[in-house]
Write a structure and sequence with these properties.
- The protein has four helices and no strands.
- With about 120 residues, the protein is mainly α.
- α1 runs antiparallel to α2 and α3 packs antiparallel against α4.
Length: about 120
Amino acid sequence: MSTGVAPVTAWGGILLVVTALGVLVFGLDWLPALLLGTAGAGAALTGIVTGFAGRRGGDAPGPVGPSVSPDSSLASVLVPIGGALALVGSVLGTAFLWPGVGLMALGFGGVVRELRAARRRLR
């Protein structure tokens, strides 16, 4: 059963790393650091708690018939990460902009591939 716990926890970890880099390297002010760090800690904590709650649930009945869940794949996680990087790059310069656009393109390509595969599988 895929619950999407890993992407939520990873997103929280990424936000915490970005917060630490912003404070330690770039001298980020306290309010943006507080907001970004709290969001990261909340996302990471939500993912961890959901992961443990899912393990304690016992034997839940699985889906009947074929099921496909492209919602929690790496490709669907690359799209918002690339978008955030491109947004940061629009302010800081092309060193962040084009890698962000590239990650978004890879993510969109992967999502399209997964949706086409899901359609073929469910036929």
